[in-house]
Amino acid sequence: EVQLVESGGGLVQAGGSLRLSCAASGFTFDDYTIGWFRQAPGKEREGVSCISSSDGSTYYGDSVKGRFTISTDSAKNTAYLQMNSLKPEDTAVYYCAARRDPSMATVRGYYDYWGQGTQVTVSS
Fold first, then answer.
1. How far apart are CA 65 and CA 108, in angstroms?
2. What is the pLDDT of residues 98-111, one digit of tens each?
3. CA dihedral 10, 15, 16, 17 (to 10 degrees)
4. N or C: which end of the chain has fewer CB within 10 A?
5. DSSP string, the chain
6. 103 — phi, psi (to 5°)?
7. Beta carbons of 18 and 122 less than 8 angstroms apart
8. pLDDT per position as a tens digit, 52-102
9. Percent of the chain at pLDDT above 90?
10. Is 74 exposed, middle or buried (0-12, 13-18, 19+ CB in 10 A)?
């Protein structure tokens, strides 16, 4: 059974940092793309970042570029999202997702597996 379990969310002041983790089981990262999405209240779920297992290429949304870093640890079968210089507008539930294709995608419909989400709240 495929499972993705996020952790690392919490409450942080603006300018602070958090590192989200996504522990995967039931599959390995080979030939997968791992994505991070977020959804704020009343808003659509948006793609934040993704990383391809084939060549390690990455994508970042404009709103997080230069502040967030995505990575994976194949030995631990875990993906990470390092979030620095956090802003109140980063407040959302963050989800990790896995796509059974090494080509990157930022649309939620292209992902096959989802975690349950972890809340990130940034206070001003």
1. 19
2. 999 988 888 999 99
3. 90
4. N
5. --EEEEE--EEEETT--EEEEEEEESS-STT-EEEEEEE-TTS--EEEEEEETTT--EEE-TTTTTTEEEEEETTTTEEEEEE-S--GGG-EEEEEEEESSSS---SGGG--EE---EEEEEE-
6. -80, 140
7. no
8. 988 899 999 999 999 999 999 989 999 999 999 999 999 999 999 999 998
9. 86
10. exposed
47-61: burial string, b at 16+ Cβ within 10 Å, e else = bbbbbbbeeeeebbb
Structure tokens at 76: 């631990």
Q: How far apart are CA 46 and CA 60, in angstroms?
A: 11
Return the number of other C-beta atoms located less than 10 Å from residue 9's C-beta.
Answer: 18
Tokens encoding 53? 């297992």
**Integer Cα distance of 14 and 21 in angstroms:** 20
Q: Which of 60, 38, 42, 63 is nearest to 118 (CA)?
A: 38
